[in-house]
Amino acid sequence: MCINSNNIAVYFQHIKDYYWRKISKSLTYSHTSTMDIDGTAESELAKLQRQFKIMGRDLQAYNTRAQEQIRKQRQEVERLQREQEELQRSLQMYENVSPRQKGSEDAQRLCADLGQVEEELEREKQCQNELKKEISDMEKKLTELRKGTVDTHKSEAQRTQKAIRTLENKLHRATICFNEEMTANKHLREELENLQVERSSFQKLYHRLVKELQDIRKDIGKTVTLSIAAHDARVEAQSKITMMKEKAVKDLGQHNAEMKEAEKVIAHERLLKEFMTTKCSERTGQDEDQEMGRRQWLKEHKLTGSGEESVETLQEVFERIQAVTGEDNLDMLVTRFIQAEDQNFALFNFVNEQNTEAEALMEQINQVIYCPALTCMLTLAHPKLFINTYHTQESTSSSLAPCFLTGLNSILSKLECDRSVLEDKLGSSAGISESNIMSYVGLVEEKTNKLLTLQAFINSKVTSQNGTDRLTTLTTALISALKSNLCPFCLLTGCRQRLQSRRPEESLPDEEGRPLSQDELCERIMKSVSAVKNAMTILCCYLS
């Protein structure tokens, strides 16, 4: 509720003036009247006293109603202040959370209404203070009226009626204003209720949006983590692919270089085989001519005489071999010869196996030569397959490495190579290992070169001298080989498989039951040297 305090104050002021004038007139009239109108004055005085009592009661009633209205207005002011605080908090909350446009306009309008209400409250407080002051003045005037004079009854009645009409009009206007204020307060309450409902819905929407924002931020964090991991995996995969491509290019270059080297070695071996085939054919022709001459000579001079000369010749050869080897026991010499022959046969089998593997590798090399582009594409497209192949080859090579080291050590021991110089050069006597294997292979190659030189020397001497000179030259070569730490039995023994695979016409039917002549012994020695030379060449190619 809200009452216009100015209208109420004017209303009470008119009432107080009216009764004051009326009482003053009544008192003045009672003192100035004559004795004729004593009865009328007394009746008028009694009437005025009754009216005064009524007005006093009315004044008390008005005071009570005014106090009640003031109390209610204070309660309404306190309630409006609380609502104002709530609205201010809501307004601050709306400003902090970026409210909608309609909410901001409503808040501004409510702030303006609150300002008006506060102004009206201030005016009501001032009116209350004025009413209190007027009530105190009224009480003072009432005490003075009991002592003072009053105006005439007629003029007082007119003024009273006029004041009553004026006060009624003002009261009507005040009632209209009061009703308007009540209507405005009702609209404000409705708007406040609507705002509270909107505030609750807005709070629910705000909390839901905050929750969705947190979920979105979590999803963004997970997505960023996954993208970083995918990027790292992509970079790692690209680096691995680049490394695999570089390795494939390097392997292809190394493979091409190895193929070129293998082609060179194969061409060299082919030329050497053709050369040796030519030499063997020439020697076979010469040996056949010599054999035919020897057979003719045996027919002419009979077998006994030639047998004695063969025994003498064999005796001379045995003495020379004894001088070279220093062995007097013929059985021991034969045993050593057989052992060396067995060793040579084992080595020859090993060489044959290596030749078979070399031929298989050559077939693979030819296949790779015919499709290098396909190999390169496969290397780039399937690096894991080639990596597994390389790992398999590495494991196979690692398993074969001890056998290869053992075989190389056995070859060095059989060749009786001097390892002291190489050990002094390496600064270690630990033996053959993967780090110094090429040095020992070089030592084998050096011995092989000596054998080739010896074979060329023997070929040059054998073709230009007769049987005796050839035997002497061969013996000298054997002695030289012995001085160079080369086993003479390696030169005297041939390849058992090659001897067994000779043509039937190259052997005599009674060869096992008779001694050999100088030409036959020279022929066998040359064949043995040629076989050893071929085996060592193939072995050196394999080791390199």
Automatic annotation (TrEMBL):
InterPro entries: ODA-DC/CCD, ODAD1_CC. Residues 161-368 form the ODAD1 central coiled coil region domain. Keywords: Coiled coil. Pfam families: ODAD1_CC. The keyword Zinc does not apply. PANTHER family: COILED-COIL DOMAIN-CONTAINING PROTEIN 63 (PTHR21694), OUTER DYNEIN ARM-DOCKING COMPLEX SUBUNIT 1 (PTHR21694:SF35). This is Outer dynein arm docking complex subunit 1. It comes from Myripristis murdjan. The lineage of its organism: Eukaryota, Metazoa, Chordata, Craniata, Vertebrata.
